[in-house]
Sequence to fold (558 residues):
Amino acid sequence: MLETISTTRAHGGTQGVYRHTSTATGTPMEFSVFVPDHEEGARLPVVFYLSGLTCTQANVTEKGEFRRACSELGLIFVAPDTSPRGEGVPDDAEGAYDFGLGAGFYVNATEAPFDKHYRMRDYIEEELPALIAAEFPADMQRQSIMGHSMGGHGALTIALRNPERFKAVSAFAPIVAPIDVPWGQKALAGYLGEDRAAWREYDACALVTDGARVPDILIDQGTDDNFLHDQLHPHLFEEACAQAGQPFTLRMQEGYDHSYYFISTFMADHLEWHAVRLG
Amino acid sequence: MLETISTTRAHGGTQGVYRHTSTATGTPMEFSVFVPDHEEGARLPVVFYLSGLTCTQANVTEKGEFRRACSELGLIFVAPDTSPRGEGVPDDAEGAYDFGLGAGFYVNATEAPFDKHYRMRDYIEEELPALIAAEFPADMQRQSIMGHSMGGHGALTIALRNPERFKAVSAFAPIVAPIDVPWGQKALAGYLGEDRAAWREYDACALVTDGARVPDILIDQGTDDNFLHDQLHPHLFEEACAQAGQPFTLRMQEGYDHSYYFISTFMADHLEWHAVRLG
Fold:
């Protein structure tokens, strides 16, 4: 059952915020959907946007500057939350921002106590698209996915594992090699345990190295991003793609940081790139 | 002395947030400025944007979706705060949102205790433009002004009192007749006292009726705005302009509300309208 929290007219379409009880996470989940005006009975392609650490659906919904382009291009834009939330959902032991609430890393956790609710992979791969297909005028033959930072990691790994589902994938400043960086090591150990073999299906570099392929990938990365040299390392993905023959475009954006000022600047570009591939 | 709180690259320009000690208000004041990339030595036209009740500079800076259009059109965008703030600044007696902090109404208060700090008219009319002229690559021969709700009231009244300064004025869902509506009556009585003759220079309808003129005015108003029928009454301004021969365009926007979803939708339109008049 889908509960409507709000619908607001914007940029020639409807920006909605919704809540439902997720069977994947066992919690209420909120997400936002923008639907451009369209002819009755029409079905529009769908772009999923996965957010980064600390975010909810609200960050991109308020600051992402996607509606004008979505309206012009006829794209539905879906923005889920980044983790389960609510009573009984375990958080980071010290309440850190990079694990637990707001930091689900788009995995199915196998370690207690996180394995009960932290099933964001199932949520994004199975439950949310089924709900979108049932409740919105979406053409599920034309889906694509993008994300920012931790959400870029989510978009890349989900697309690489499900190449038949997505016609396009792109990312803003993604975590491309979680196995090799502090954010990823903490999260994957916490959610999946210490056996690193289990981490590889949640690592874009490892997936490409292990044979996963999509038609092409676009990444924008700001050169003044505080996390560039410790957490992001887009050159690792560039190398993995080059070695594997995976088509890949990396655009280093001079002077841009990790914030929504950066994302909003290149959002329309990405949506145009998606629209071409969504047909 | 201008203190830089932050500068961030965005949409091919620089989004800055600044603080200074205002002589007009006797308090620290924060404002944001977006400066598009430009040739060295170039001076760009300036758009002042005045925000509504409860806002700071941050609302439009984060949600206004003005940067792309400003960059394309070569416009500097300045967003001041809506009131003085800080220790010793008196607020509404009951802490209501519609008077005191976040609700300066762009007047010079004459009633104690507000007369000491609530001098937003002097701040916007005198001090801020001098600071912008001194510190930014601004062509002060090409200024315009816009605003939302209480800030639309500010933009209209300031432009009507200073027709030589501004080449364009527009507003989103402005308070056009504060003398006649609850928000305005509370604010003007509180800041100016009960003599309604003193209110007329802060009422767009009264100013036009009393002879003030600008070349033309653009207003967008959502039909689903919760405040339309109690506080905004754009038809009062339409009637005043028609009677006075003041050129005026009112666009009723079907289904839009009072929020930044509405503002961001029509922001680029307004900036294009300003750019034509700024030359």
Observations:
- Chain B touches chain A at residues 8-12, 15, 62-63, 65, 67-68, 222, 224, 254-257, 259-262, 264-265, 268 (CB under 8 Å).
- The radius of gyration of chain B is 17 Å.
- The CA atoms of residues 19 and 30 of chain B lie 4 Å apart.
- The longest strand of chain B covers residues 138-148.
